[in-house]
């Protein structure tokens, strides 16, 4: 029998939560960070190394995968897991966010979105039903409803319109998901409503009534101040069912993650660690190191001898500096790996501190250490 | 006591030779292929994976390393092996070839070459003595004399002048090497003389009298027809001491290697497998596959299930095609690894066939298989 999807809350510390999301493809320890594997690859990393960092789940981007290599092709080849050689759970977004940010000539209607591919200009339709169908073809374990995410700042009227449309799309997504999905798969509804607390309340309550397997908070980390983001999270979380996982989409910095876990978030994804790795930046407990800086040229020390990952432990800063300066591919390979390992070490630290009832102490010490070093860099 | 440098000839099959080069850092099985690690990295590969392909020795480029990160800096950081995390032997070229092909505003004299860096325009001097000094600072196990490699075609007079200059530089290199090198290190003299058999004879005999640890054949694979290259090898090898290793610089395709081993060559280096990997090409026993071709888009087969290397065995051609089309870094990572693994499998096949006295059969079957498939591609 297929393992049903489940969320087990194991401990709380204030509003912070320790838990696990159980899926047929494995258990996700929460709070969890999901590295982004946009085009069926976590850029510059072997999946074996991603796994070894303590990553339990990857994120795939429906928009990119539907355009290239194509969802039907991935299905014929045995699904996304087999295609990219990742046997753990995969969460996919709906594609909606990137349709709006990357594609050309978009036309939005009640039915869905018609758009042109940014790759070859080909015409595509995306509806709530088609998004779920694509995610099922990919074999996604945790699927997202199609929503409309408005750019901030937006008028209240525009925010409300998009939130209401997203709710109607949630209903249609739920119907499609129930008809099409494999046993054990999950669908998350996405709370919208911009920075208007009452719209967020309405969105969250309406979604809760749909009894989704989990809930995402969308429409944040799109340019608003951190404080506004955190206030919106605080206003939204109480309306979400305590027994379901909560996923803050596209967030964020280590600081964002600590402050969002504090407010009851369980799952995160962000391109920061992987993108930064390709741009010569190394995440550490003392903040980010810009490996391009001449200060590293003669430094025989590793990035962090205590981080249990080869790129942090086994290579000198001088060597990494040389690779970045020489624009060698190995620079991006090593720094991406380091950064994913650091993010997973951060999540492991968060989980351990919640289990031991000392999350506040862990959060404060980590924020202080990062801030002090960030100033002295 | 430091293991002295040695060459042990273990078997011959016609003119083809099976042997081993023994160095303080390990034994090199010959015929050997040396992947190129230009700037202290085999591009897009972890050294652990390079080692796992059966690679016994890497090549480093003195010209690149002296300019960035700098030989004195590498020495302060503990040497090239520690810097790049490769504990096996490293062979370095003299830097001369790339001074002539990459640098700006070169001035050649009896003393050496003055040139400007292609990176930042800084002025540098390269003499036979400085080249050896740099190679010693890097900690190179097998060092090359500085020589002058003229571009082909060249006049006989120009070829002779450069060959004679290279012989005088060999003497100076030898003196410097004896004064500066670590125990167990080796210095190879480089035979020049273009495609003039009598000049090659004179060069080889004069170098043999210097009792170098090994001998390189330089100035080939610079644009001449393969037949001319092979004839020049055949004309040169008989003048080289049978008890010393013979290294054909910068060669080549699998076909070049098979035909050169047949003529008595023991060591090779070439950027082809690594460069091709970054350009979407996969070497196989059936020739090169261009993974960008649409023919691979739906092909679930691996590149080669019998090649004992993860990139050849564990990923579908469809996935590799997708990665190449999407310009993902993982494409270059996997195809480079596949290609180095293929080259090492080719060398292992060559060595086994010499040991069993069936080199001709192995060579003919391999050439036929590659040629047939090359036509049908």
Task: Give the overall shape of chain A, derived from the CA principal axes.
Answer: globular
Give me the CATH superfamily of the largest domain in chain A: Queuine tRNA-ribosyltransferase-like
* Count of folded domains of chain A: 2
Number of strands of chain A: 16
Biggest sheet statistics of chain A: 8 strands, parallel
Given this structure, which CATH class of the largest domain in chain A is correct?
Alpha Beta
* Distance N to C terminus of chain A: 54 Å
- Helical content of chain A stands at 40-55%
> Biggest interface and its residues per chain?
A-B, 35 and 35 residues
Overall residue-averaged pLDDT value of chain A: 96
Structural class estimated from helices and strands of chain A: alpha/beta
- Assembly category: homodimer
Description:
2 copies of one chain form a homodimer. Helices cover 43% and strands 19% of the residues of chain A. With 377 residues, the first copy, chain A, is α/β, with parallel strands linked by helices. In chain A, the strands form 4 sheets. An 8-stranded parallel beta sheet of chain A has the order 4-14-13-12-11-10-6-5. Chain A has a 3-stranded antiparallel beta sheet with strand order 1-2-3. In chain A, helix 13 (317-325) packs across helix 14 (329-355). The termini of chain A are far apart. The interface between A and B is medium-sized, with 35 and 35 residues.
What can be said about this structure in brief?
Chain A has 377 residues and is of the alpha/beta class. The first copy, chain A, is 43% helix and 19% strand. In chain A, helix 11 (272-278) runs antiparallel to helix 14 (329-355), helix 13 packs across helix 14 (329-355) and helix 14 (329-355) runs antiparallel to helix 15 (359-376).
